[in-house]
Amino acid sequence: MSSEPRLVQGNEACAEGAIYAGMRFYAGYPITPSTEIAEILAKRLPQVGGKFIQMEDEIASMAAVVGASLTGVKSMTATSGPGFSLKQENIGYACMAEIPCVVVNVQRLGPSTGVATAPAQGDVMQARWGTHGDHPIIVLTPSSVKETFELTVRAFNLAEKFRVPVILLMDEVVGHMREKVILPEPGELPVYDRLKPNCSREDYYPYRADWDKAPPMAFFGEGYRYHVTGLFHDESGFATEKPEVIDLQLRRLHNKIYRHLDEIITYHSEQTEDAELVVISYGGTARAVSRAVKLARQEGRKVGIFRPQTLWPFPEEAVAELAGAGKKLLVAEMNYGQLLLEVQRVAAGRCAVTGCLQTNGELTQPETILNKIREVYEHAPGN
Amino acid sequence: MPGTWEVRLSGSGGQGLILAGIILAEAAIIDGQNVVQTQSYGPAARGGASKAEVIISQEEIDYPKVDRPDIFLGLNQESVLKYMDGCKDNALAIVDAGLVNHIPPSKARVYALPITETARKQVGRELVANVVALGALSALSGIVSRESVTTALLRRVPKGTEDMNRKALELGFNLGEQALAGAQAGHN
Description:
Chain A: One of its GO terms (molecular function) is oxidoreductase activity. Chain A is an alpha/beta fold. Chain A has 13 helices and 15 strands. In chain A, helix 1 (10-20) runs parallel beside helix 2, helix 1 (10-20) packs parallel to helix 6 (145-162) and helix 10 (283-298) packs across helix 13. Chain B is of the alpha/beta class. The longest helix of chain B has 26 residues, at 162-187.
């Protein structure tokens, strides 16, 4: 890595960010618009002593990632919507067995195989609820090439610290876009390594932890023997059906995330102080919003931007504050209104919440958003 | 935005327009500018109409797509019909004289240049038409310096093809300079 500015693609920034974070195992099945991540890692991982495997499909890729991570190697896979659906079963397994991993989804237009090269943001809810059962998960979303690098590193840090799958939810716009960036030097961004047990092998309980913490994790194959299962289990790792133990385990799985939101949630907000209207947006769409908000300001409209980098857990407190202050909220996203639902839930009727939604396979244009801003600004009920 | 150039390069899949866009963007970085490069293409690797877009600016670039091009390149008929519309008034439009027969009505300054023919006849490889086009576009617009685009090109092309590519770029510069001189003579 050098401090010279260079032209980097979003997918390349993701691959390089993963290596920077210490990822040394990738298993995947290539799919547009995520393919460059696999291509680049197939070349780069052997150069840094890592392993790249092209598996027979996405289900096997996710299984390989889970297995590799258990042995202590930071692991990742990348895909798009159709493959993301296939990975869900093993993502759930990783949630339950508390196995750190990073799953990149460079979203394209769906449902189904949709349009391979067209941008969309239709997997916001699948990223949250794609696997079955009540489970916590962390989802990050970048809107520039530089941020893709930074959030990829962050995804690994959070995965390793909280022992949870982290979804890096990109979109075709950000994945394929190239920008001038200076990639961080080693040491510039924090890199978190997994906490290992400091007890003897005999005293090791793989799932013994404080009520709101992830337990230390022994590397499989290093001599600490333990059982891993998708069934509810007690602190020994063996299956249980005892209601009180089940209750404790599921509470801890949630507490280890929801009691640490300050460490997990980040967002970018701009000109929200005096704003009468705040546009909430993320990923590629947020780039069009930036332009639209500048134009709206030039017209004398007090408009701000709220851009979550963490989609899940949702930045509820910050959005509630905007709603409580009576600001009109406009949610711009390339789907039928997925984050919009969450914003409406949090706003709870305290302010007008409107969507600027586009799902035709093209990045929303600033003009479209500006028109919606004008409409909502003038006509939506305010306080 | 002031001090901003929106460039749209279009043609059929396989004509190397995305690579041309990357080289143009890298040349602009060498010149100290901010850049964003995007592309739009279908599932086919060959044929049809594809485009690569580059925004070059002194400012930070928010929206990454070209809204109204200041500079347009069209290397086949289909792409000219599909993507030339929306050029700014007085935009610079360069089309391939041999492959584009119909130019839609436009307020752009249109230059029809023998880009592919030059690549075929003077370099011996149609493959380098994108590089000829890049040279012509640089000379006609001045958005990137000649040195920077040459450096950026030589960093990107495969080993052993440097001379061929350098020649294609020079021929492109010449095409552009001649066209510019011709246009100025025409105005006098």
